[in-house]
C-alpha cells in the first residue's frame, strides 16, 4: 500500500489542527461602540466606575474566555443596591441586593444568557476563597447609554462583585476596585 503523506507532513497537519482549535477557543472583540458624553448627573461614579467618553471607541464581546477548573478573571467592585452604580435591578431576579450580601455579575459570555442565574460560584483571590451568587450580567455587548448608566461595556473577563465579596477576600478597602482572581462554578 502506498502512503501519500510523509511523517513530517503528518506532523505539520497535526500542528495546524492544534493551532486552529486553540485559535477557535480565544475570545476576540465582536464589535465596537462609540462613546457618548453622559448627560449631567447621569453616570454614577460610585466605586470608581468609568463614564463613557464622547467619541472613544469601546470593544464589545459576545464571548468570554473558555471556562476551566479555575478560570482566570478580573474582579471589579459594584453596588447592587438601589441607586448604586450597578444601575437597575439585577437581571436574574429583578431585585436589588444589599452590598453586604456576596453577589456578582458575570461578563456576557460567562453569564451565558442567564444560565448561571442564582447559581453560586467560588472566587479565589488574595489567598482566600468566597462563594457568591450570580444575580446579574456585566454587559459586554452594549454600554454608553441610559440603560447602562452611561458606563462602557464590560470587558469579557469580569466578575463584578459586591462589597461583601471584597471583605470576604480580605482585601483592604483602599485596594478595592480591581484584583486578578480565579473562579469556578460552586
Describe this structure in words.
A hairpin with a 2-residue loop joins β5 and β6. Helix content is 15%, strand content 26%. The chain is globular. The chain has helices at 7-24, 108-111, 163-168, and strands spanning 31-34, 57-60, 71-77, 103-107, 120-125, 128-138, 158-161, 178-185. Strands 3-7-4-6-5-8 form a 6-stranded mixed β-barrel. A two-stranded antiparallel ribbon has the order 1-2.
- Tell me the number of strands: 8
Shape: globular
> What strand order characterises the main sheet?
3-7-4-6-5-8
Rg, alpha carbons: 20 Å
**Helix share, percent:** 10-25%
Secondary-structure element string: HEEEEHEEEHE
Question: Strand portion, in percent?
Answer: 25-35%
Specify the number of helices.
Answer: 3
Distance between the termini: 54 Å
Low-pLDDT parts are 9-24
Mean pLDDT across all residues, rounded?
87
Largest sheet: 6 strands, mixed, barrel
Structural class: alpha+beta
Short description, anyone?
The chain has about 190 residues and is of the alpha+beta class.
